[in-house]
Protein 1
Amino acid sequence: MKKTSTEPYVSTYLHSKGRRLGLPIAGNFELTARCNFNCPMCYVHMTDAQLRSCGKQELTAKQWLDIAKAARDKGMVFVLLTGGEPLVRKDFFEIYDGMREMGLLISINSNGSMLKGEILERFLENPPFRFNISLYGGSNETYRNMCGISAYDQVKENIRALRKAGVDVSLNLSITPYNKADLPQIYADAVELDVNVRASSYMYPSVRVNGDQYGCGNRLGCRESARYSVAWDLLRFTPEEFEKRAEAMMKLEAIESDGCPVEAGEGVRCRAGSTSFWMTWDGRMLPCGMMTRPEVNVMELGFDAAWETIRKETEKIKTPGKCVSCRYKDFCGACAAVYFTETGRFDGVPEYVCKRAEEIVEYTRRAYEERKAK
Amino acid sequence: MKIKKELIKRDIAGDTILVPVGKTVYDSNGLFVLNELGTFIWDILPQAENEAEICRAVLAEYDVSAEEAAADIAEFMARLKELGIL
């Protein structure tokens, strides 16, 4: 398995410059809330029937391209096309090709099930910088239970075809009650396919689709979430790597994380609302796709004014001061989106996440001692 | 001189970057960044016949010695060839 994913080496530099100058360096474009999968923990998914009855409409390809052009003119370089499943849009390539011609470096989030036939051929001719494919399990049965479709074999075949052609693929893995038993198989698949996996047993509460149900979610309990987080560490690290990491954790020293890049301190510490933005499928701008506020309607305000509003509103966000001095701050992964989705406030302490961080350190300690005893 | 790769030039707040498109994505690891001299050379590359012509253009634009200009141009061109861009 690849141990790291490759971020463009100038990305950090451009984001640093963008932060200083207030530039939107990266844009996340959620092209649709529709998906051919039906996963219970999804933060955005709507069925066709829900979409019809909600009174909102997806932006057209032209509207997406107009927004992308305005963002590019303000400095956007990196684009993530996501959903839902972006490939369910019949006009996907109109959007994709148009953005490529603008000189944007594009990554795509996909469940991987539709990357075959003509769609695959088009991507092989004009590949994105990277595909981030969500892997939901290690068997057709798990896919059926979790996503409502037995797509495991097809997804794996599609990833194999992309890798054979030389397309960069990274896997995202959400560890849930439905697929927790599949971790060894998923790891074996990642090794076979020679791809990096970004796994997380933490699921944000889906407040975008479930209204104000903060702190709720179709997810593992905090103790079990910690247990499977460590189970994945035991699979992905060599014994020496795991021991080194465990020794640092037991001393409560910072460890390398493959989550969003964050800086120390209060407020929003990642790139959200500072150098990156999220466009929802119906034309609203958010700092991050997990939040429901601050939000601005880009179709009413225009891109430039929307970006300035989001930047200013994001700067006002204050996260809990007590977290800055917490002993477990380097292991919880808490960010503004976590605080908000767990508690409904940006300054609320997310107890589930706090407990989970303590348990991760404890499970790591136990695994370390068991290994040493052997 | 012929540029073999599909690259789109972008100016981002004073920096010049080259974004790979089409099949160039397969053999590039992201973006290329050009400094000021690199940007100047990049812009005249398609019309230039050879390095000597580029050198004359650089000397007309910048206050540098012929030796310095030739060395910098040779280094830049070698890098482009190494990356398969030229």
Note: Residues 7-82 of chain B form a domain with the Arc Repressor Mutant, subunit A fold (CATH 1.10.10).
Protein 2
Amino acid sequence: MIRIIHFREKCIGCNACVELAPDRWRMSKKDGKSVLLEGEENRGIYTAVVGDDEFKINHAAARTCPTNVIKVEKMVRKS
Amino acid sequence: MSPAGSWEALSAALHAGADSVYFGVEQLNMRAKSSNNFTVEDLPKIIALCAQHHAKSYITLNTIMYDHDLQLMKTIVDAAKSNGVPAVIASDHAVLMYAKKQGMEIHISTQTNITNIETIEFFSTYADVVVLSRELSLSQVSDIVKEIRRRNICGPSGKLIHVEIFAHGALCMAVSGKCYLSLHTHFSSANRGACIQNCRRDYIVTDKETGYEFEIDNEYIMSAKDLCTIGFLDKIIDAGVEVLKIEGRGRSADYVHTTTTCYKEAVLSITDGTYSEEKVQRWMTELSTVFNRGFWDGYYLGRTIGEWSTSDESLATKRKVYLGKGVNYFAKQKIGQFTIESNQMNVGDEIVVTGPTTGYVHAFVTELRVNDVPAQQALKGDSITIPLAEVIRPSDSIYKLVEVRTANTKPSE
């Protein structure tokens, strides 16, 4: 599993994450910032735990984000 | 018109006598990434502050707009309207259309790249003020102003269109800021206010056949020097320009204060007939003390094509060194109290205090007391008091200004 973290406040709504990972990101028509689909909010920071198959495109989204507000990390499996 | 990229800068601009300020709200402005933008909730406070100083305030709403931005754009225009913001600065047609419908005054942003009279006629349906393209010569600017008068081109207010130009600050290598470099290399769009400034770096060219590398070491070939028009401001005013804009929403309070003060003085000098070469020299020296990449005339005088910066750093002649925080102000005795958190303060030091309410205060240390005992020097950890004509607050930071040594004489610290 991987964890995607979105520090949403500093998003400038450039649409890059949506272009790269359209199944995980959507632009909000309300405030023009991107939304991490199925993300859970805690103090303005959104987190979603999803399958490994999404790592590549979301990692690309994180690298591409001009304001560096997306983090993607691989979760360590409990033995 | 001065840039306000933070509360400090806003306050500095107003104290320095700016007639108007411009600022971004939320992310739809050309400094979305580099400045600390205000929110819709901040608007009442900004408007009240500006009203106290009899200054107008304008919202920049001038990025390119996508479908998903439209609601936020409308929210910002509505909030601007209900809070009494005099106008929005826009370039995208969606913003023009909506703001017009809402009866919100519009200024056409330089991003629109207006270079001729008929384009002004086109935009006159929407806007009362147009910011001309930064790449025009002064004679072109002057011709445009004359034609506005001759053709009687009026904006929605029924008054003649006002012409605004950039008077001071950073210039972009791309026409009217429409640059793709940052997006191309870093996916970071300049046209969404996230320019990473590729043009301000130095480069190596590689011969693909041999692999030889040539460093382009004589100049930063894409990095334009900063625009400075204070030496021919009389000609700009003669050309009929009514608003002078200072670039720099990404800049600090000291930059905003110094540039605003110099240009305000210059305009007043031209009005009362005391504008002179000596004064220009003095202002140039002042302007050199804050952030700059070296100065040139831009394109207005049309004689020098592209002057490139020789450095990737600011050429400011003075540098701020952090000393500490504000503690208290004793209004009766006109004394400011500070805590020194780093470096040292000496009697004779040139200091500045900046803060969200204070803006920018400049002074020299004439007298210094450490823990209420007269002293020549204060060190880290000391609680100090100094005579200060202006009020300071606990939210303020204090710095000393030191001369910047040139690269050749820089010691290897």
Note: The radius of gyration of chain B is 23 Å.
